[in-house]
Specification:
143 residues; mainly beta; 5-stranded antiparallel beta sheet; 10 strands
Length: 143
C-alpha cells in the first residue's frame, strides 16, 4: 500500500534527539518486489522461419535448488512479457508477446506484418510479470 507514496524518515544517532534530526524523504518504488531478470536466453528458428525464444527464470524468494530441477516460482502465477524491438533499446516495442511458460514463438506471419519479412537478427526484451509491480527487471537480447 506504500508503493509510490512519499514518506519522511529521521535517523537518530547516539546522543542526538529526534527533534534535532532532519527528515529525509523516501518514495518506495518497490524495487524489492520486482521479479529478477531471466537468464540463458536462446533464439532458434524452425523450418518455417518462426522464431522460438526460450529462457530460464530466476526467483527472488526461496531460491534454493532443492529438487535439482527448478527453483520455486516466487510469484502468484508464471507469466512473461516479451517485447519485439525494431532496434536494441528502441521504444515503443513493435510487438509484445505474452507467455505462461519459459518459451514463446514469434511467427513468420507476425514478422512479416512487423518487418515485411523474416527478422534476422531480432532484438527482444523479456520481463517476468508480478501481481504487485507488473513487469520485473528486463533482460535484453539480440539473436
Amino acid at each position: 500500500s506504500d508503493i509510490d507514496s512519499l514518506r519522511f524518515y529521521k535517523a537518530v544517532t547516539i546522543g542526538a534527539t529526534i527533534e534535532d534530526s532532519g527528515a529525509i524523504g523516501f518514495t518506495n518504488a518497490s524495487v524489492g518486489q520486482k521479479p529478477y531478470s531471466v537468464v540463458h536466453v536462446a533464439i532458434t528458428r524452425d523450418g518455417s522461419d518462426n522464431i522460438i525464444i526460450t529462457w530460464i527464470r530466476r526467483t527472488r524468494i526461496g531460491g534454493r535448488w532443492r529438487d535439482g530441477t527448478d527453483v520455486s516460482l516466487g510469484e502468484d502465477t508464471e507469466s512473461y512479457s516479451i517485447d519485439i524491438l525494431s532496434a536494441p533499446g528502441a521504444s515503443p516495442a513493435t510487438r509484445t508477446l505474452t507467455s505462461t511458460t519459459e518459451t514463446v514463438t514469434y511467427t513468420i506471419g507476425d514478422q512479416t506484418t512487423d518487418f515485411a519479412g523474416a527478422r534476422d537478427p531480432v532484438d527482444i526484451e523479456i520481463f517476468q510479470i508480478s501481481a504487485v509491480v507488473v513487469r520485473g527487471f528486463k533482460t535484453e537480447f539480440t539473436g
